[in-house]
Amino acid sequence: MAAITAPATTPRRRGGQHRLHGWHIFWIAVAVLYFVVPLYSLLQFSFEGRYAGHAAGFHWFLSVFDDPAFRSSFWLSVQIALETVLVSNLLLVPTAFWVHLRLPKLRPVMDFVSVLPFVVPPIVLIVGIIPFLQPFTFIYSRPEVLPLIYVVFALPFLYRSLDAGLRAIDLKTLSEASANLGSSTFGTLVRVVLPNLRQAIISGSLLTVAIGMGEFTISSLLSFNTFPVYIFTVGQSQAYEAAALSVISLLIIWGLMIGLFLIGRGGRTSIAMGATR
Amino acid sequence: MTTAVEELSEPAASVPARTPKTRRSWKGGLRWLGVLPFAAYVSIFLLIPTGELIVDAFKGTHNQFTTANVAAIVHGQYLQSFISSIELAALSSLFGGVLGFFLTTAIVARGAPSWLRSTMVTFSGMAANFAGIPLAFAFTSTIGVGGVITVLVQHFGINLTSAVPLSGTLGLAVVYTYFQFPLMVLLIVPAVDGLKREWREAAENLGASAFQYWRRVAMPVLLPSLLGAMVLLFGGAFSAYATAEALSGSTGNLVTEYIANLLNGNIFVNAQLSYALAFGMIVVIAVLMIFYSAMQRRANRWLR
Questions:
Q1: Total-model pTM
Q2: What is the value of ipTM here, to two decimals?
Q3: Which of residues 127-146 of A touch B (CB under 8 A)?
């Protein structure tokens, strides 16, 4: 047996290269199955659940599209996600620019603050935020409070993306050149730095959209009917509809991730973890 | 740093009027104004609420100092909720860590085609982001009641939903592993890449088998990175709420679910207790972070 298989494998071992072991193939197979089987089951559930005696096809999808609560929760989440992107960029782009340009000594502090949200999980933050913001009814009772809180969770992703982007350009030289040509600091930010940071801003923002669209803990505890809260509620009684909604949600998140991948192509690949659990 | 700025701005001094003046004014305390909006924002939405909850964890109903709340959470059902959360976090980070590690060694192995690596890393990025409510329903469709795998193994006489109920610790750990192992891959690929080719070749020249190389050379170098990554996985699973809530509902006994139940409907049923539980979570995560930074320091000794 060995004599028969040996020649077949020899050509692959060019220059002492090893081919993939059975051991490696085993773990790759386990990982692929782990990855694929739940997705397959979810699709199976959303398409092939029985409805009135025949395979449902798109029935569950169509039935959730018809639900006004689907549309309102979906648009609420889209709105929240976009507001989170807007606020976090307005806050962080000028701050990151300013720290890099004028307060480089503050950079370690900024690095530290930007990872703090990892230490304070959403469920803990909301315990602190409720008594603190409750007196300010005009903001606390409106859905706009959600993007304001989500900015905190976007901070690690967006700030680190911006920080890496700013480190990659020669900010000092660019701003000196810009100032010598008569530009103000603001003009430098808008006309010189922003175009250079485009990739960092877009990739940080895509992760921020993923956070805004997917966050469940805080929106459910503050009783806002966002898209994940709606899926949760549907799932309490309607398994097929919940599966269809999960597929929709998954496609959105993955669309964002593919966008990230396409933007990051050619550049460095960043660790993308936008989901809040 | 400042001298470099001065040197650079020297030629600019010959350029007329305002450039030197504005430059000088920004050198003073005024430049700190630039980070004021950020500092204010982070204070309002992160630092003050967190700080206040820590202080409030030690306050009684009449604002007096007390350790009663914190003492209450290390007993009975509240202690049990911490234990459940820690068990779940440990189990899922162990599953995710082991599978993620072996997958990483497989995709960076010599002889592994380069498309395999890029494909698996891309898929890891996607799977790591598949979490929360949709993940819960994906696993309900798989190993829940009437799930695809549940129905499949029923033919072999196995009752999956009673063997591994999704609301139990093992069931939840299986679900969390879905995002834990890809996260592990993303976290440790750089460290595994940092293993020098020469080390392997030197080991092989000295007659080491693949197993001996991993046992004696690669593992000691990688161990701090692996443990550090698993600590991050642990922290993520420990803080998670959405997936568990969707799967176990009101029967859930994780600390995050206890806090949510105390907060439910926006009203503090027992505010002091929820502060104390939240404070307990911060303590656990702080301990994890200390361990993580110690691991990072050790990891950096070899992998640069």
A1: 0.85
A2: 0.84
A3: 127-133
Find, among B183, B265, B266, the residue nearest to B232 by Cα: B183
Query: Tell me, what's the pLDDT at B267?
Result: 57
The CATH number assigned to the domain holding B254 equals 1.10.3720.10
**Per-residue burial over B230-239, b = 16 or more CB atoms within 10 Å of its CB, e = otherwise:** bbbbbbbbbb
How many separate domains does chain A show? 2
A9 within some domain: no
Range of the domain at A42: 25-57
Angstrom distance (rounded) from CA A124 to CA B56: 13
The answer to whether A259 and A274 are in contact (CB under 8 A) is no
* Residue B247 included in any domain: yes
Same structural domain, B32 and B100: no
Tens of pLDDT, residue by residue over A136-186, are: 888 888 999 999 999 999 999 899 899 999 998 888 888 888 888 988 888
State the Cα torsion A260-A264-A265-A269 to the nearest 10°. -110
Nearest chain B residue to A210 by CA: give it.
B129
**8 Å CB contact between B139 and B175:** yes
B52 with B89, same domain? no
Q: Hey, are the CB atoms on B49 and A271 less than 8 Å from each other?
A: no
Q: Chain A to chain B, count of Cβ pairs less than 8 Å apart?
A: 288
